[in-house]
Amino acid sequence: QFHYDKEWNVNCLLSGTKRWVFIDPFRYDKDLQWSRGKMFRPKNPLNNKWTDWVYLDPDSVDLITQNKLRNMEYYELIQEAGDCIFIPYAMLHQVQKLDDGLQVAASWMFLPETIYDEEVCKDAPLDEDLPLAAMDTLYMYTGKGLIPQGYGDPLGFVNSLKQEMTDSGEAYLSLKSFKKMVTQGDAILRSLPGKKKKIKKLFDQITSYAQDPSLGLKIDELNRVPLRIWAKPAAEGDHEGPLPCDHGEEYQICDDKEWEKINRFVDARLAAQKDRPRSPEPNVEP
Prior knowledge:
By secondary structure, this protein is of the alpha+beta class. 26% of the residues lie in helices and 15% in strands. The termini are far apart. The protein is globular and about 60 Å long. The strands form 3 sheets. It has a 3-stranded antiparallel beta sheet, with no helix packed on it. Strands 5-3-7 form a 3-stranded antiparallel beta sheet, with no helix packed on it. The protein has a two-stranded antiparallel sheet with strand order 1-4.
């Protein structure tokens, strides 16, 4: 389906051929038949409530039920191996493969609020390629289970939890408040088999980051819990429920052992870089 993301996206195709179709939702927001509705905010797109989509087959458009599409401009391009395309955040898009061969692509997605900090990145090992598995990402994915991107923002979930604690007058996060936040609407954790034990286990894992786990997390301690941990309740507690491809799936947290492995790899690359001279800056012709 046509959908938009909250992130910038650079998509590079390694093999295969794809067809992309784009529609500018800023021009046609009021005329599009949104699936969720009231998610897209054309006047304040950085604060879109979340993603939304339009059920539409570009090759077989029903111009009776979707008659307003007659007057909409769209963009189409063919992507071949070696091509990278840039997809602006909030741009409606749909992709289709054009051959039966293996399609391999990589996407780099980053929030539009992201600002490059040269000082922070000055020691980055730029002279060699790092595997994607060594990258610290907001939507950490282990390769198994539910893919968290497309569900609630982990940081947004933390902020909602802070508000719930404030409204409830809680000094420490309670199991009651946590359960309330992850079982709203059609949330996975509302109907998952063994949900009571799973919610308690997740609550205990989060609480273990408190200065005093016997008391629990204070509001100003919620940020001590890594976002890779918060990604689980943010996804499984999303009130809109699972995407069609995620029914029966659970989010698999990147555990501390795997996280330490990532850090050791990056630290080793940084140490190796310090032992050898950096590549000279390329000459730039005026």
